[in-house]
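Table 4 source record.
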Amino acid sequence: MTSTVEPLVAVVTTDLSAITRGRSVVESKLQKIAATGVGWLQANLSLTPFNSIVDPNPWGSSGDVRLVPDLNARFRTALTGSPTPFDMVAGNIVELDGSPWLGCTRTMLSDALAELKAATGLSVIAAFEHEFHIEGDFGPAHSMSLAALRRADPFAVNLMAALAEAGVAPEVVIAEFGTDQFEVTCEPADALAAADRAVAIREIAREVARCAGWRTSFAPKIAPDAVGNGVHIHFSFVDAAGKPATYDPAQPGGLPARPLRSAPASCAICPRSPP
């Protein structure tokens, strides 16, 4: 007599420390929980990247919220090399009455995008470039060379196939400048979808590497003398018709007056690094 193992779907949230956490359900229950979500705790936001709890923890161990999956943000692939499919759905954390919870990072992004559109009429289109290191048994190779990518074969092939099947729309994978460092990029999407894709890229890259017996790190710095991992965010502002708001071929340099007026204020968040 044979039994069927039902795949799991992870309903996840990515917290302020960039750790993706969540709870998993059998796939047949996903539609049922889509309306009410799964149980979650406010105190989970107090977890640190070092597997400790901040002190003081403002919520203690009491209280309850819900983590509600957004079925439009589901990433599923059976191409990671794992015995079971990778299946992840981004969710929003809500109060028990269904109202947004103040600590939900995905809701924070949605609210910020809505405020931008209300104030300016503009939306954001974005794409991410993720750099990461793999702790594997690789030989030496020149930075950004074909040989540096091929020595990790079939990692790059498997990663791109898994990302494509999951709906991430990958574009390019390369061996980066650092030792055993790689980079993967994806196509532009609206800002919320782009952020969800960024999370999926990290988790799927970890999964493909794990299945090859390797460990992946997206940490900004894995060693004092190592090349750092960056994450580049490319973004454009578009109007209601989808027309770029920061390009005007009739103006000098193709720059319209509106973004130029905002340039001094942007220096508050976009200055170059200090020497």
